[in-house]
Specification:
- The complex is a heterotrimer of chains A (about 500), B (about 400) and C (about 260).
- Chain A has helices at about 20-30, 35-60, 65-70, 70-75, 85-105, 130-140, 150-155, 160-185, 190-210, 215-235, 245-270, 270-290, 300-330, 335-350, 350-360, 360-365, 375-400, 405-410, 415-430, 435-445, 450-455, 460-465, 480-505.
- Chain A is mainly α.
- Chain A is globular and about 95 Å long.
- Chain B is α+β, with helices and mostly antiparallel strands and about 400 residues long.
- Chain B has a four-stranded antiparallel sheet.
- Chain B is globular.
- Chain C is globular.
- A six-stranded mixed sheet of chain C has the order 6-7-8-3-9-10, sandwiched between helices. A four-stranded antiparallel sheet of chain C has the order 2-1-4-5, with helices on one face.
- Chain C has about 260 residues and is α/β, with parallel strands linked by helices.
- Classes of the chains: A mainly alpha (about 500), B alpha+beta (about 400), C alpha/beta (about 260).
Chain lengths: ~500, ~400, ~260
């Protein structure tokens, strides 16, 4: 009798109905093992307690009047109340300018240029950790294919305006919430007007950049420059140099004309961005003078001072940082030594000590006829200090560029200067944008040191100054003011950090 | 055409102004010349200004009596300034060393917590890290010192006591410490670590020979504990417990409020950065590595210990080294809350008639020296760990 | 091929002084030595390349072939010996170096196109910056070159949007736009996928047909057989054997050559 193997008859098991997703998620994320479950319970209790105390503090027991009453102290320090229109004009101008840039970039339809060499990650976003990952990746496996998927994920060219608005809301909620918080603390209606005005200026700029045709935009830009030149005629910007008024005004107009000509010339020969950059540089100069002409530096303060110090320092330190980076990688030994010495010196010492030194000892380094003001000293220190860090960042970008690029340029007969300017720098600088943003965020937070080192009334120092005003004295209100200031810095920092992460994803950080 | 008999490259020497080597060196010398000019102008100004104000520019001031006390220590007014500088540097090291160790521990824990399977643990760590990372260190320092320690900590009479281990109040915090030479104890610990390492090597050899698991920790840790314990007993170390007596505290090691505040701020701040680095480095290990480990039937622990962590560590070392440098430099902020570190000593010195330029120059050089030492240590560690490549 | 002497009886020594082409010497290397630290990459290289001659250099990796042609346009600096290109000697004279770089075009293994510039900008950058050609004329020239390598329609695209074979052809056009007298090719097809190798080789064959002086370092033996006037075999930093393709591939003289050919053919 042959044994016939027979498949056992299938046993019919009733299939359980679909499990609600929340339950599976809960099981996986909260109660995977018994220990996990206990941890969840303990954590829930702790979280609930913290949440309860926090809620109580913020909404019930917190004495927020100190913040409400001193809001302008926090924002602008002791700036003359009558002259506050100057910062407002500056904010509106900057918002408009950003709007124009954003609108203009929407009109460009060329395909995204892939990054050459590794894009240097923002060290504040170590999820990518460019260099290290590159090393491991190169040894362990093939580099990931160009991130077409990620690129299309953030390339919202095809998204509807509503989708884009929602996306922006999701991204920028800390900023929006922060602004709303400040507005809610305002005691008058002016902040609302300013906020509204800023949104209008940004929106208007966007429409301008998006829909006004190229040539017309150039005409508008040139007109703007002419207006600025007229302003310089009126305002005599160089009188702090001690030159007679007519000379100062003439110098102002000449400077305006030079920048205008360069920008317009570049724009008509090349592309719009050069014109926009020219307007930006020029406009910044004009804004600076607008802000400081009538009001001395010493009355600056608050959040405005922190932003101002950070922006000026990063702007000024940029050329120096690029030169130092190029010098550090130079084949000429003396240049390399000098640049390396500078970079290592400024990266090895604490910023706080340098600021203290600037306050007390800087006077020794300059002839006694010049007495630089405290703000000037602070800017000088921040610039020199940040230049060293920027140099290291740019050096990373230079190193990430394949050697073949310079070789190809040399083989074509391009001189060293032209090679650097046309081939090396455009690529290297583009690769380091995320890391530069990270450095700016660091700098922004470091500007708080001026309060302790030089006695400025910046935003953080304001938190203590507010508790010494009149009725608020001696009530231990630091517990309210300091967290408020922390929150403002947090909003600024995380917004910039998130945007740079987004930029990193778009550019494709890490291995090529 | 025949090959030339001599290899005379010098024939036809280009004119100087077109010779690339001449051009290169001329440019370099010009730049260096400019730098030298700048530096000598600056130095000249320092000299003339100092002469004008009748201030010294040398380092003689170091031998003068200090004329100021250092907060939180028993430094006496009449000791020379050089002693003050040493004391300041020691204080900086005390703060930075403790900070480095604690920040690393907390940072690594937080980094791992951010990758935990448990949602609450993960999110809690995320909130903490995302908040602390994005605020200025100084604001954290102010909050902890001014708003917490000085306001919330109780008066000595009502000190918080953790039985036999710690007594905390607004005047200072006392923690149980040991009596005896610290250096010798460090030596004993190092000895213990060396013995543990030796045991580890022995176990590895055994494991290789027999194929049985090495279980190094099981053998090495008790050995180390034994040695430390033996050293403790033989060296006559005793535990010095703080005790509250009315409104005075005796015993234990005292941490001034400034020290505690600065330490907490530095640790909380730097650990958030280290946490992000740790998390990022683990995530940066290509996912294929874990997949390969799984395909080879390695257990979860083995996968983490033998495959993921070694690679993650190599990625993490340079950024963490950077954070160490930052912590050391950030320790200078403790001077703002009057902790007697090197910066504070310099400030006090200059306020008490020490010449500013030499004093600050010396301070900068010392900080630079410490930075270089830390950098060197990190570099050596990094190089030893580097993956071997073609 | 253009008319030149057929040197069937080539005396094979390390001294490769016989040459083909139209008779005039275009490039001459005499006693060239190049060291990298303790390692000598080129030991006493002697080679003459005639006008309109196509020389193909083959050899195992590490033999110094790339180093040799990189010395010709000063991407590497030779330590001893003389290099003369079209009468200009390669020395530390900045003017000589620039002159030689203008007269030689190089095509790299990794293409090395400038990714942030369009194809047209890549091709016209050097003529505009080095020869100071006005923009319109440069673009006209650029289109001509792109047509010559048969991809005029890609002019406004970015290199990242092109295939490997197309990128390499743009690189050739970019080098040609400077109207060089000599074209140097450093393993131009080694980084290409197989299906794209032929389009590049065809372009190179066209160039040879039109009478360009070329030195090509390659592993493509088919190309050598078809197009080369002379084949140079290098190993361990020395020229081991030189000969016409017929001589070389059918009946090489040196043992080292035979060994190499047996390994690759």
């Amino acid at each position: 009798m042959t044994a016939i193997a027979r498949a056992p008859t299938a046993v019919v098991v009733p299939v359980p109905g679909p499990v609600p997703r929340a339950l599976t998620w809960g099981r996986r994320n909260l109660f995977r093992t018994p220990i996990d479950g206990m941890v969840t319970i303990v954590a829930t209790v702790i979280a609930a307690y913290i949440g309860y105390r926090l809620f109580q503090f913020v909404f019930v027991t917190g004495r927020w009047d100190v913040v409400r009453v001193n809001l302008s102290l926090f924002l602008v320090g002791r700036f003359e109340r009558n002259e506050l229109w100057r910062p407002v004009v500056a904010v509106l101008a900057v918002a408009g300018y950003i709007g124009v840039w954003t609108g203009y970039s929407r009109t460009r339809t060329t395909a995204p240029i892939p990054a050459t060499g590794a894009v240097i990650a923002n060290p504040e976003n170590p999820t990518t950790l460019g260099g290290g990952a590159a090393v491991i990746g190169a040894v362990a496996q093939e580099p990931p294919p160009p991130s077409a998927d990620e690129a299309s994920e953030v390339d919202d060219e095809g998204a509807t305006p509503v989708e884009r608005a929602v996306d922006m809301l999701g991204r920028l909620w800390p900023l929006i919430a922060g602004v709303l918080l400040l507005l809610s603390l305002a005691t008058t209606g002016t902040p609302w007007l300013v906020a509204g005005g800023t949104v209008l200026a940004a929106g208007g700029g966007y429409l301008l950049g998006r829909f006004v045709p190229t040539r017309a935009l150039l005409v508008v830009a040139t007109l703007g420059l002419i207006v600025a030149a007229a302003y310089f005629l009126w305002v005599d910007p160089f009188n702090w140099l001690g030159v007679p008024s007519s000379v100062g005004k003439a110098l102002g107009v000449i400077a305006a004309a030079a920048v205008a000509a360069t920008a317009a010339g570049l724009a008509f020969v090349r592309r719009i961005p050069a014109a926009l950059v020219g307007v930006g540089l020029f406009g910044s100069l004009a804004l600076l003078i607008l802000l400081t002409n009538a009001v001395g530096w010493d009355d600056w303060g608050g959040l405005m001072m922190n932003i101002f110090l950070a922006v000026i320092s990063i702007g000024l330190c940029f050329p120096l940082g690029v030169l130092l980076a190029l010098g550090r990688r130079s084949k000429m030994p003396l240049i390399r030594i000098v640049c390396t010495a500078y970079i290592e010196l400024f990266r090895g010492v604490p910023l706080y000590v340098l600021l203290l030194m600037a306050g007390i000892a800087l006077g020794f380094f300059v002839p006694s006829s010049i007495t630089p003001g405290l703000v000037t000293r602070a800017i000088a220190v921040f610039t020199l200090f940040t230049a060293a860090y920027v140099a290291e960042i740019v050096r990373g970008g230079l190193q990430s560029l394949p050697r073949g690029q310079t070789e190809a340029a040399q083989a074509l007969g391009l001189s060293a200067v032209r090679t650097t300017f046309f081939i090396v720098l455009p690529q290297a600088l583009r690769n380091v944008i995320p890391a530069m943003v990270g450095q700016f965020i660091s700098l922004f937070k470091d500007t708080t040191l001026v309060g302790g080192a030089l006695g400025f009334l910046d935003l953080l120092a304001g938190s203590q100054a507010a508790t010494r005003q009149g009725d608020f004295r001696g009530q231990g209100l630091l517990g309210e003011t300091i967290p408020f200031v922390m929150l403002l810095f947090w909003v600024g920092s995380i917004t910039m950090s998130r945007e740079s992460q987004r930029l990193e994803r778009k550019l494709g950080v890490g291995t090529r | 055409m025949t090959a030339p008999a001599t290899l005379d490259k010098q024939a036809g020497r280009p004119p100087l102004w077109r010779d690339v080597r001449v051009l290169s060196w001329t440019f370099q010398l010009a730049v260096v010349g400019l730098v030298v000019l700048l530096v000598s102008w600056l130095w000249g100004n320092v000299q003339s200004n100092s002469d004008r104000l009748n201030i010294d520019t040398g380092f003689d001031f170091l031998d003068q009596p200090a004329g100021f006390p250092i907060p939180g220590s028993d430094f006496r007014n009449n000791q020379p300034i050089s002693d003050a500088v040493v004391e300041g540097l020691l204080n900086t090291i005390r703060l930075a060393a403790a900070g480095l160790v604690l920040a690393t521990l907390l940072g690594v824990l937080l980094g791992i917590a951010r990758l935990s399977g448990n949602f609450l643990v993960r999110t809690g760590a995320k909130f903490y890290v995302e908040f602390v990372r994005n605020i200025p260190l100084l604001s954290l320092l102010y909050l902890i010192y001014l708003a917490v320690i000085l306001t919330v900590f109780p008066r000595p009479v009502d000190s918080w006591t953790l039985e036999g281990l710690a007594v905390l109040n607004v005047r200072g915090s006392h923690v149980a410490w040991f009596d005896g030479s610290a250096l010798a104890l460090i030596g004993i610990v190092v000895l213990g670590m060396a013995a543990a390492w030796g045991v580890g090597r022995w176990r590895t050899t055994v494991a290789e020979r027999t194929g049985q698991p090495a279980r190094t920790a099981l053998f090495a840790l008790p050995v180390m504990a034994l040695i430390v314990a033996a050293g403790w007993l033989i060296g006559g170390y005793t535990l010095n417990r703080p005790e509250l007596d009315g409104n005075r505290v005796s015993g234990g090691i005292e941490m001034t409020p400034a020290y505690l505040g600065a330490l907490l701020a530095l640790v909380l701040y730097t650990s958030s950065h280290i946490a992000e680095i740790v998390r990022g480095s683990i995530q940066a290990v290509p996912i294929g590595q874990g997949e390969a480990a799984n395909a080879l039937a390695l257990s979860g622990f083995q996968r983490t210990w033998h495959v993921i962590l070694p690679q993650a560590m190599r990625i993490a070392i340079p950024p963490i080294g950077n954070q160490y440098l930052n912590l050391m430099k950030n320790s200078s902020l403790a001077a703002i809350i009057s902790y007697g570190d090197l910066t504070k000593v310099t400030e006090l010195g200059v306020a008490n008639r020490s010449p500013a330029v030499p004093a600050y120059a010396l301070t900068l050089l010392i900080y630079l020296g410490v930075s270089l030492v830390i950098s060197l240590a990190v570099n050596i560690f990094n190089r030893r760990l580097a993956l071997v490549e073609r | 091929m253009s008319d030149r002497d057929q040197n069937t009886d080539v005396e094979v020594f390390a001294d490769a002084t016989q040459m083909g082409g139209s008779g005039e010497v275009m490039i001459e290397l005499s006693g060239v030595v190049k060291r990298f630290g303790k390692f000598t990459a080129l030991q006493n290289i002697n080679l003459s390349v005639g006008r309109q001659e196509v020389v193909v250099v083959i050899g195992p990796s590490g033999s110094g072939k790339s180093t040799m042609i990189r010395c010709i346009n000063r991407l590497e600096e030779h330590d001893a010996g003389r290099i003369v290109v079209d009468g200009t000697e390669l020395t530390n004279d900045l003017r000589n170096i620039t002159e030689i770089r203008r007269e030689t075009g190089m095509v790299f293994q990794q293409f090395n196109l400038f990714p942030h510039l369009t194809v047209m900008d890549n091709v016209t950058l050097a003529p505009r910056q080095v020869r100071h050609t006005p923009k319109k004329e440069a673009e006209r020239l650029g289109m001509e070159m792109l047509e010559q390598v048969r991809i005029p329609e890609q002019a406004r695209k970015y290199p990242g949007q092109l295939s490997g074979g197309q990128q390499q052809r743009v690189a050739i056009a970019r080098a040609l736009a400077m109207k060089p007298k000599v074209m140097l090719f450093d393993e131009p097809t080694s980084a290409l996928d197989p299906e794209m190798i032929n389009e590049v080789l065809d372009t190179m064959k066209d160039l040879a047909r039109e009478g360009m002086t070329m030195i090509v370092v390659t592993h493509e033996m088919g190309f050598a057989k078809e197009v080369a006037d002379r084949v140079v075999f290098m190993a361990d930093g020395q020229i081991v054997e030189v000969g016409t393709p017929e001589h070389f591939f059918k009946d090489p003289t040196e043992d080292r050559t035979k060994l190499f050919l047996s390994q690759i053919l």
